[in-house]
Amino acid sequence: MTTASARVSNTASSTASGRVPVLLVHGIDDDARTLAPLANGLARAGFQDVQIVELKPNNGDAPIAVLAGQVAEAAGSLRARTGSSRVDVVGFSMGALVSRYYLQRLEGRNHVRRFVSISGPHEGTLTGWLRANPGARDMRPGSELLRGLAADEAPFGEVQVFSLWTPLDLMIIPARSSRLNGARERTIPVVLHPLMLRDGRVLRAVEEALTVERPEDFTPLPVVVPPGGP
């Protein structure tokens, strides 16, 4: 098994207070720079502590479970540094699945207030067959990891869960695999998977999910799939 270590980067801060610290988790082949637009946007919105977990390795050579351990370590460090009993977690693509594993298998549900998934392969993606490494195998439809997570009767405990995804996704195939049972859901027709982290509608939706008073006030939108779409 590949040994992986977590590096937490302070990417943004503000002078405002009263926000829950936020941990951001990137996707496959990404790094902290990928999440910079989201981190900076949250800082401008008044979040005092926004940090990014930089997963090592980032190419799928480590299983999802190993990467989730890095998220657990980073979340614990963030809570210790800020004195907050809970953090919010936002995961993109593979990072959303890594974060979900942390919640369900590594007691993350006891330390997380809200979880926002952005285009995560929660029911697998056919692109997982393009690589033969452990992380990619975990993301294939019907993998042992995905079956196990889906079998949990109460997977998130008291964590408030949100899912943002695009029906036009060509990285998560089929795109509807980004849907997450029990989540407050919003579909945003972004044309490319990586652009989910730069689209203003997505950035505003993340901010709303983290600040809305009640999860039910985060209005779900109907799933609109264009003709011939996924």
TrEMBL record:
Keyword Hydrolase among UniProt keywords: yes
Gene3D superfamilies, sorted: alpha/beta hydrolase
GO molecular function, one term: hydrolase activity
Keyword Transferase (UniProt): no
Family matches, as SUPFAM superfamilies: alpha/beta-Hydrolases
Alphabetized UniProt keyword annotations: Hydrolase
Pfam families to which the protein is assigned, alphabetical: Palm_thioest
Taxonomic superkingdom: Bacteria
UniProt name for this protein: Alpha/beta fold hydrolase
Organism from which the protein derives: Archangium lansingense
